[in-house]
Amino acid sequence: INADFCSIAKRDSISEHLYKSIYIVDDFENRTYDFLKQQNVRILGLPCLLYIIDHSILLHTFTFNNVYSLTLFKAIIVFSGFEHERKAELSRLTKLAHFMGARVKLEVNRSVTHLIACDVKSSFYQDAVGLGMDVLNLDWLNYCWSHRQITKFDGTHREITANFRIKAFTGLCLAFHGFSPSALKEMIEIA
């Protein structure tokens, strides 16, 4: 890998190699990335490249584009419970999922591995629980993104997802009546 491949100091120098190269960048939140994305070229982050090398994946068979890391390489995600006013947040989270190698679907089916839900009232929650998939809160994606530099980090590992499972009563309003203060305190902690 030469310096022209990894570094884009001069925009003029990339024109001849622009469409037949894979560009490795150190950050997906800068002008270099934005410029390359506008050129519709293949862009990978260094953690993604290191994972590919580590696992002997042939680059011509690796069809993902604009992937920074493979933190969520095994994940097929559906988002649920985002109201219209949260559309910008949903767009940002979808982009993060793609940057970490996840695939995002619109419907829950047997191929989906994770549902990210705002609450248990979300439209796909019951389907996801019935299919036995992990139903996680939004913090999971942000946590995985914060570990994107760690090549061997697997955000789909059970030890990770267990910390981000949505609680059974998230988003619901519960009313307790007639319980002793100690019993009430215990139920509130459980809920």
From TrEMBL:
Pfam family, one: PTCB-BRCT
InterPro entries registered for this protein in UniProt: BRCT_dom, BRCT_dom_sf, Ect2
GO MF term (any one): guanyl-nucleotide exchange factor activity
Boundaries of every BRCT domain copy: 68-158
Gene Ontology cellular-component annotations: cell cortex; nucleus
GO biological process terms, semicolon-separated: mitotic cytokinesis; nervous system development; regulation of cytokinesis, actomyosin contractile ring assembly
Name listed for the protein in its UniProt record: Protein ECT2 (Trinotate prediction)
Native organism taxonomy: Eukaryota, Metazoa, Cnidaria, Myxozoa, Myxosporea
